[in-house]
Every structure is written in C-alpha cells, then in structure tokens.
Amino acid sequence: MTLTQMFDPTAVAIVGASTTEGKIGYEAMANAAEFDSPVYPVNPSSKGTLFGEAFVPSVTDIDDDVDLALCCVPGPVTPEVIEECGEAGVGAVVVYAGGFAEAGEDGERLQQSVVEVAEEYDISVLGPNTSGFVVPRTNLLCSFASGAEKLPAGNTAVVAQSGGVAHALAFQSRRQGRGVSVMVGLGNRANVGFTDVIEYFDGDEDTGAIVIHVEGTDDGRALLEACRESETPVIAYKVGQSDVGEFAESHTGALTGDHELYLAGFAQYGIPTVDATDDLLDAAAALADSPEPDGPNVGVVTAQAGPGIIITDRIQRAGGRLPELTAETRDRVDELLSGVTYTGNPVDTGRPMPAFGDVVTAVAEDDNVDIVLVYELFEQAMGFPADALDGLAERVDKPILFATDGIEEDMADDKATLTDAGVPMFETPERAGDAAAVLARYAKIQGRAGAALEASR
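Now predict its structure.
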C-alpha cells in the first residue's frame, strides 16, 4: 500500500459522478475538475459530459492509468466499487459515505468488507465517513466541500480525525494568511490512519510541520511512535477531556480513551499538545518556519509594556522561562536604550525606535536565550525592523517570533516583508505568548524524550 497514488496521482476517477448540483457526486467532480491532470466522471446511468469530461460507465472502461478514485456512492455499494477499482489497477480510494463502523454492528460488518477487498487489491482507503482531502499546491481538491479551491498552499499538514475539523483548520489557516500543504480528514480510518499519513508527509519537502486532531485510536502506541519518528515537528490536539465518548464513537467510530493518558503519552514521546484550533495552527507556524529551539528560555522584546506583561505571564504560566540576560547583553541594551524604561527580560523600549532592530539582535545573540519573541504595535513612521530580522533566526539558529497589531491596510506591506523573510507573525499578545510557550515545551519534552530513548537502548 502506498499513499503516493492518493496524494500525487496521475489521474482521478469520480465514481458516482452526478449532473445534479448539491449531490456529493456533483460537488466532488466540481472540485476535482480543478486538478492539473486527467479527471474522469464515472456513472453507468449518465451520458454526455460533466465539466467538459465524458462520462464512462466503469473505472474498468477508462483507457488510462488511474491512481485515485473518489467514491461518491452509497455505503452498501462501496465494496463492489472498490473491487472494480482493484480490477482497474486503482491504488487509492476516498470513501465519502457514512453508515459504516460509526453506525453499529451492521456498519462494522460493511466496513470490514471494504477492508477485506482493499487488502486483496492492495488499495489505500481514506475514510469511510470522510469529507476527503485537499492538496492546494497541485489543485488536487478531493473534497466535496465548497471553498476548497480557495485554500492557499502553505507548509502545515493538517491531519484530523474529523473531516469537519480538517476543513475548519484549513479555512482558519487561510484567514490567517498561512495556508496548508495538505488537509486530510481521516474519518473511520478503514486502512489509512494517522501513522500512514504522518509518515508520508514527514517525507514531503513542502511540509514544515504536521498538526493532528485526535478523538481516539485503537493503536495509540503506533500513533506515538510515528510522531516521535517524524523528523517534521508534530503538534497534537487531543479532544475529549470531558465525557464525549458515546458522541465520538458515533462520529468516526473512535474510542476516546483516558484523556490524561493520551496527554501523558504525547509528552513522553516528545509531542507538544494544545487545546484549541488557533493554538494548533499558531504552534505549527512557529515550528514550521523556525529553527528548532535548544531550550525553553524565552527572550522578550516589546515596544509597549502592557502587551509585554501579558506575553510574559502567558509564557511563564505555560511552562516557559524568562532567563536573566547576560551582562554583555545588558550592557549592549543599556547603550542602545540609554535611560529608556526596562532593560531586563523582557526588554521594554517604550515605543518603536530606530534602534529597535538592534535591541532584538542583541537579545537574539544572548547565550541565555533559546527563543525570541518581539512585540511592536505598528507605527507607520517607524515600520517594522525588517532588515534586522531578515535572516536573523538562521544566523543565531533560534526561533524568532513577531507579534503586532494596527490598521491592517497601513501595515500590510511591512507584514508582507516579514512574512516573505520567513518570520512567524501573530495578531495578539496572547497568541504570540502561547506560541512561544509551545516552543519552550517542545524543547523541554523533546529533551526528556530523547534522554529516555537513549537510556532504553
């Protein structure tokens, strides 16, 4: 079984394609038609064309090598369709229909039939009970949801147990101006689950971080192992802290398990966790666009004291540390800020100033600092210290995060300059502080997990 045929296919078939707007077979074809390679509508009851492509009665009648089929038929017909796909040499299938393991014993038997046929033909099955996936970079829109074509390409892989959460995260990422390398809704995980997708996108050069939304899994150890073995940072959002077990099981057939055990397992294996979708995407942006931190020590530079206090509080409450700056750094900062406000950590300049970028550089070069967080309300006359920040993270080999606020149109060009320079940006002091805290926790638990792994060998 290979996921290359799913996420990088040469051609796609839409089985159950429909000319009726609103039906999954129509909406899936509408999205899939955006793909840069051949797309074939399949329906034995339809004639003519759909989105410029001629209908064919079966995937076995397609005179082309089709890697991926989008299955838009009702659940009971699904095993038969997958068998036809196997006979046609299709290596991957997305099953949208529900009524499988999440629906009781009859559904479990139906899903087992799907698994058995897929195993016979070595087919990767995403779903059942999923809204599919999207790879914006290649216009591979294997979802029936509207708006999929507007998702921008980014460097975060979104892997969610729920298709609804997967889409919600992808749309949030668009609003944040970030985008995704892929958005995947796993659904019932018939034979494609977390481990498979994590391993595949760990090897994807366009993915800088992987975020996972977890309701529950029957093989938690395999999930943890896949996260730990991934060279690409993985951040987890485990839901189900309260008693949602029955609801979750009826959703994707998930057994939520003990929430605290999941969190302890993630921490043991070096995977940071968050408890909100915004936090998940912010942590991904911080990890994907930055060098990995060596430790939990955060140096804060703020142009306004109030937001700096909020940031400092968030970082320390979440387990990060604000170390004392070295004597050399304090001397450098004192010289730059002669007589100006607070020059400890955080460093408060009082307002943006010509030397602001030099202050950030001094803190970034401090040996006691592992992570740098900068906050500056936008002032049009001063702009952002783009020249100082461009390439600084790579030079000091530390994450450097930047948070700001102001009139959007006034600071658009300056924000774009920092974004183009690869500086992760945040819109509130709370989100910036939380992202820095995730980096701090990541450094700590990665260190502990690595030490434990070495000790066990």
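The chain has a mean pLDDT of 93.
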